[in-house]
Each structure stands twice: as structure tokens, then as C-alpha cells.
Specification:
The chain is built from 6 helices and 7 strands; from the N terminus they run ββββαβαααββαα. It has 187 residues and is α+β, with helices and mostly antiparallel strands. A hairpin with a 2-residue loop joins strand 1 and strand 2.
Length: 187
């Protein structure tokens, strides 16, 4: 894989999210270090490309229209070097890189998480409002899931996972997790 150009937006996959950084050249990346980085966790720092990738590889996120040139983006990144105002939801590594390049804070992955949480929350509310029906003779009652509620739950999980979910158990379990995350975020 050829080296990226100075000022490129790098994205490295992680389990459950993607890590973002701005390539400075000479195998160096400036980014918000994760909370597991020890003493310098949650700070804007310069690390090697290898340390940034953590053996996960990377790809270049292209920006069709950049507000700031590559050089200006690098200057903006340096202006925040050492900053320690990391917030997963409000000021993360993606927010940082997009600010350097486009001039505004934006995180697509956080917006998708929030949208998925909203869909999941609505799906759970729909499921909870379903009437209680008698189960098989001699068994306790159970809550019925109508097709629209099942579709809403499956769609919420599909948005998160990037594929359609087919079994009902997996979407409900994942939706419950999203619902709990959404409640934690709201509180």
C-alpha cells in the first residue's frame, strides 16, 4: 500500500468503531489518543503510523471539497497538539480530523449511533405497546410482536450492523443493548 499524502484523513478499523487521524508525512499521524493510551490518553498527540493503526491497517477518507488545504489542515491540527478535551460523543478523533479539514465538528459514526439508538428506542416502545395474547393452551400469556414492530427492530439492528438481521432473538438482544446505551447517553 502506498503511503498517504500529507494532510490525508486516515481511518483505521477497530472493534465496534473506526479511529481517525491526520497524516503529517514521514510516517507520523496526529490524532486524539484513546482512553487506553495511559498517561497521554484523551490527548491530541503525534504518533507513528504503525502505532496509529495498531496492526489494523487504514484507508484514506477522501474529501471532495476541502475547506482548508492540506498544509492549513496540518497547521490547524498542530494548534490543538496536547489538547486533552476528548469526549466520545462530543469531541472525538473523527470530530478532530473533520475540524482540521472542514472547519466544523462532525462525527458520522456518532450520528449513526444516535440515529440507530432512536430507531431502536422507537421499536422497543412499539413492541412494548403490543397487546398480550394467550399463548398455547395451558401456558402463560406472552407479548405478541406484530410484523411492523419486528421490522422496526430488525431495521434498527441492520442500520448498526450494515446488514439485514433475520432472526428475532439477535435483533432484540442487540436492540436492548442499544436501548441501554441510549438511556445511559440521555441520563
Amino acid at each position: 500500500m502506498p503511503l498517504p499524502q500529507s494532510g490525508d484523513h486516515l481511518v483505521s478499523p477497530r472493534i465496534g468503531y473506526q479511529h481517525h487521524g491526520l497524516f503529517l508525512g514521514d510516517h507520523q499521524v496526529i490524532h486524539y489518543r484513546g482512553v487506553s493510551a495511559g498517561e497521554r490518553s484523551g490527548q491530541v498527540a503525534i504518533t507513528s503510523l504503525a502505532e496509529f493503526c495498531q496492526r489494523q491497517g487504514y484507508h484514506v477518507q477522501h474529501h471532495g471539497m476541502r475547506t482548508y488545504s492540506r498544509e492549513e489542515s496540518i497547521d490547524r491540527a498542530y494548534s490543538r497538539l496536547g489538547e486533552a478535551h476528548y469526549s466520545t460523543l462530543l469531541n472525538n478523533c473523527e470530530h478532530f480530523v473533520r475540524w482540521c479539514i472542514d472547519g466544523f465538528h462532525y462525527s458520522k459514526q456518532i450520528n449513526q449511533l444516535i440515529a440507530t439508538g432512536c430507531i431502536a428506542h422507537q421499536a422497543l416502545r412499539t413492541v412494548a405497546r403490543q397487546p398480550t395474547l394467550a399463548a398455547l393452551p395451558g401456558m402463560a400469556t406472552s407479548t405478541a410482536l406484530n410484523p411492523s414492530a419486528t421490522t422496526a427492530v430488525t431495521a434498527a439492528v441492520g442500520v448498526l450492523l450494515g446488514s439485514s438481521a433475520t432472526s428475532l432473538a439477535a435483533p432484540l438482544a442487540a436492540t436492548y443493548g442499544l436501548y441501554r446505551a441510549w438511556r445511559w447517553f440521555r441520563d
